[in-house]
Specification:
- Keywords: Cytoplasm, Iron, Iron-sulfur, Metal-binding, Oxidoreductase.
- Catalyzes the formation of sulfite from adenosine 5'-phosphosulfate (APS) using thioredoxin as an electron donor.
- It is found in: Cytoplasm.
- One of its GO terms (biological process) is sulfate assimilation, phosphoadenylyl sulfate reduction by phosphoadenylyl-sulfate reductase (thioredoxin).
- One of its GO terms (cellular component) is cytoplasm.
- The chain has 424 residues and is of the alpha/beta class.
- The protein is elongated.
- The longest helix is centred in the N-terminal third of the chain and has 17 residues.
- The N and C termini lie far apart (85 Å).
- Helix 4 links the parallel strand 1 and strand 2.
- It is 31% helix and 12% strand.
- It has 2 domains: 242 residues, Rossmann fold; 161 residues, TIM Barrel, CATH 3.20.20.
- The protein has an 8-stranded mixed beta sheet.
């Protein structure tokens, strides 16, 4: 009996529905990993499929299968800049041994790393943001080029992956293929030994799941194989994977998750809210309320980590004029749409105090305000209001040509004679 075929890409991703994925999952034996992979490559998404590999402890097994079916399949490796040297050497070993001809490295954006993680220690305090700028953000534009991609995920690795099928339909109508979904640790070891595949140099040392060096540790006998990833933290995934249940990660695009609008896009935000009682000498990537900064000025100035400043209505930005260079970002709070005092704060920062860093609007930020905010010097916005988010994404903000309260020397107030205006 001939196997059913799905329409070729790119039309395939637009038409595939959950029912079609269920049918695909019913076509293969649980352990027929090569069959799943071959059908995905040749029938489901021919020429429109790629694989993302960590080149970790189990990667040789799936990559060996890829080499059997199509050694020219694009294989993407997230070169986060935080890998073990042994992992980087292992990439070259597997390329040569398996004859993989299309391995491509994905690097994080250098500007994001410089802005969010200038000291390379973001993983210590905010591993989610570290993963985001080094993995999720760089990978997303790559996966958008394909109708689907292959992963090495397995059900046994964590309880969150216990419902993992061979084929998944993502929220944006792409297909995720998991050929090893039903493989156990013993199955992986047996396959590796049967085909005499090179072992990751760290595997014999107790590293059963290998990611970035700072966030990977040895796994003890009887522990979950992924217990050594982000040990001691409430974190189990790096954010690039999600399944049909949404249990692993929220199936949303990066733009939908972000609230910081800057340089024409919603981007990852390294800054967090200040928490009452936090230690001023250890704070990092937080917007410190102005009164808190003044009360602990010496400690904050001695703190070597990046900091921001939060200014609320009624607070005088002039009180910290001499210390503005200390802050990578100044957040001006708009508690309500009708409270316009934040505009004056931004103008003072730009025009009188000559602050050249990030000035962001936070709070009740709506699309009608944004043209005014930009005129006054705001170059970043924290936006949670969904219609405003869409207006920014679609570039359909209101425009202004008339000004009752002009900014600078170029705008002319309504009802005046421009030639009589004095330039200060």
């Amino acid at each position: 009996m001939a196997m059913p075929k799905l329409a070729p890409a790119p039309a395939a991703h637009d038409k595939l529905k959950a029912l079609g994925i269920l049918a695909l999952n019913g076509m293969f034996d649980e352990m027929d990993a090569v069959g799943v992979l071959r059908y995905a490559i040749t029938e489901v998404l021919p020429g429109d499929l790629a694989i993302v590999s960590s080149f970790g402890a189990d990667s040789a097994v799936l990559l060996h299968m890829v080499a059997q079916v199509d050694p020219s399949l694009p294989v993407y490796f997230l070169e986060t800049g935080k890998h073990f040297p042994e992992t980087l050497a292992y990439v070259e070993t597997l390329k040569t041994t398996l004859g993989l001809s299309n391995v491509r490295a994905i690097l994080p954006d250098a500007k994001d790393v410089l802005r969010f993680d200038p000291n390379g220690d973001l993983w210590e305090t905010d591993p989610d943001s570290c993963c985001h700028i080094r993995k999720t953000e760089p990978l997303e534009p790559i996966t958008e080029q394909f109708g689907g991609w292959v992963t090495g995920r397995k059900r046994y690795q964590t309880t969150e992956r216990g419902v993992l099928p061979h084929f998944e339909l993502t929220s944006d109508d792409r297909i995720k293929v998991n050929p090893l979904a039903y493989f156990s640790d013993a199955d992986v070891v047996e396959y590796r030994q049967a085909h005499r595949l090179p072992e990751h140099p760290l595997y014999a040392k107790g590293y059963k799941s290998i990611g970035c060096a700072p966030c990977t540790s040895v796994v003890a006998e009887g522990e979950d194989p992924r217990a050594g990833r982000w040990r001691g933290l409430n974190k189990k995934e790096c954010g690039i994977h999600y399944d049909f249940s949404g249990a692993i990660a929220n199936p949303m695009t990066a733009a939908a998750r972000h609230t910081l609008w800057k340089d024409g896009a919603f981007i990852a935000d390294p800054f967090k809210d200040w928490e009452e009682g936090a230690n001023p000498s250890e704070a990092r990537y937080v917007h410190v309320p102005l009164p808190v900064f003044l009360a602990n000025r010496a400690e904050f100035l001695a703190n070597p980590h990046p900091l921001g400043l939060l200014v609320s209505p009624g607070e005088k930005i002039e009180d910290v004029a001499d210390d503005l260079a200390r802050f990578a970002s100044v957040a001006v709070r708009f508690p309500a749409f009708s409270d316009g005092r934040g505009y004056s704060t931004a103008r003072l920062l730009v025009e009188r105090l000559k602050y050249a860093g990030e000035i962001r609007a936070v709070g009740d930020v709506l699309q009608d305000q944004i043209p005014h905010m930009r005129r006054c010097g705001f170059n970043a916005l924290v936006v949670t209001h969904e219609p405003t988010r869409q207006a920014l994404i679609e570039n359909r903000l209101p425009e202004m040509a008339l000004f009752y309260q002009p900014v600078g020397v170029t705008e002319v107030p309504v009802g005046t004679r421009p030639f009589l205006r004095r330039v200060s």
